[in-house]
Amino acid sequence: GVGESCKETCFRNGYICERSLFPLINSLSVIQEFLNCSFSMGPASHAPDFIDYAPAQYMTTDNKPGMCIVNPEPMLFSCAGKLHSAVRVCPCVETIKGQNSLSL
After folding, report:
1. How far apart are CA 67 and CA 63, in angstroms?
2. Do the beta carbons of residue 88 and residue 7 sit within 8 Å?
3. Which secondary-structure segment (H or E) carries 80?
4. What is the 3-state secondary structure (H, E, C) of 7-71?
5. Could you tell me the pTM of the whole model?
6. Looking at the predicted structure, is the pLDDT value of residue 102 above 60?
7. What order do you get walking across the sheet with 39-43 strand by strand?
């Protein structure tokens, strides 16, 4: 949802966020399958304040779908990052009963 971290979004839906899977969803074509992007900006290097939250879609000031961006820095993928005006695209996976997982 808007303003949620991937950790929160995945948990709310009964999943966990798997950081190692971000590279699979970090493309504008994938984002556009799930979100109605008003336009695509490409890599977040053009918008450095947004890198920690990409891949994502940013909402306009009147809360309508805005630009979609991807993250050009794989080391900065994060399940915990959140921004009040962003809808993140998250790599959620099922948990296995009895499985332990660590989230850093």
Report:
1. 12
2. no
3. none
4. HHHHHHCCEEECHHHHHHHCCHHHHHHHCCCCEEEEEHHHCHHHHHHCCEEEECCCCCEEEEEEC
5. 0.79
6. no
7. 39-43, 65-70, 56-59, 86-88
Provide the residue type at 53 as one letter: Y
Tokens of 58: 């940013």
How many whole angstroms separate alpha carbon 69 and alpha carbon 81?
15
**Nearest Cα to Cα of residue 21 among 86, 80, 104, 93:** 93
- pLDDT digits 0-9 by tens, 17-54: 999 999 999 988 888 888 888 766 655 555 556 666 78
**Token code pair at residue 22:** 């971000």
The torsion angles phi and psi of 41, rounded to 5 degrees, stand at: -95, -20
